[in-house]
Design brief:
CATH class of the domain at 1-87: Alpha Beta
Helix content: 40-55%
Main location: nucleus
Distance between the termini: 76 Å
Function: Involved in rRNA-processing and ribosome biogenesis.
Order of helices and strands: HHHEHEEHHH
Strand content: 5-15%
Subcellular location: Nucleus, Nucleolus
Structural class: mainly alpha
Oligomer: single chain
InterPro entries: Fcf1/UTP23 (IPR006984), PIN-like_dom_sf (IPR029060), UTP23_sensor (IPR057776)
Strand order of the largest sheet: 1-2-3
Protein name: UTP23 protein
CATH superfamily of the domain at 1-87: 5'-nuclease
CATH architecture of the domain at 1-87: 3-Layer(aba) Sandwich
Length: 172
Amino acid sequence: RCVLKELELLGKELYGAKLIAQRFELRNCSHHKNPVSGSACLFSMIQEGNPHHFFIATQDPDLANKVKKKAGVPLLFIIQNTMVLDKPSPKSLAFVQNMQTNQLVPEHQKQSIVDLKEKAGLANQQHEKRRKRKRAGGPNPLSCLKKKKKKTQEGQEASAEKKKRRKRKRNR
């Protein structure tokens, strides 16, 4: 509703955008009596963790930067008449990684693993990565092949005769 109010206030230049926006389903926002700007309203709808799984489609760079800082909010924008889904933000990727690790091992088990490592003395050891040494390889297998015998003149004449027999005439 706030976006439609803003489009009405901006005048006739954005009448087409207003008609397009009216076709979509209206979502109730918390600013019924005193509407705010469209970008502020959209951002307030995703403020509490995006419970309704909204996508944000905008060309406003300020709103896009704010949305990228929120985890789990997909961002759409338009480039040359093509809708583009922006890649997930680092915040979203970190959130997903954290959720996956929490699902694999419960918190109480993580704590017990840490306690067991401390008792065994493994917690303070740092694993050093050893580099593999490059070992000298053998000779090139192609250099070890036996040399091919050169063709004799008789062999070349015989092959020339075969070539003559195989020639075909072109039909034009």
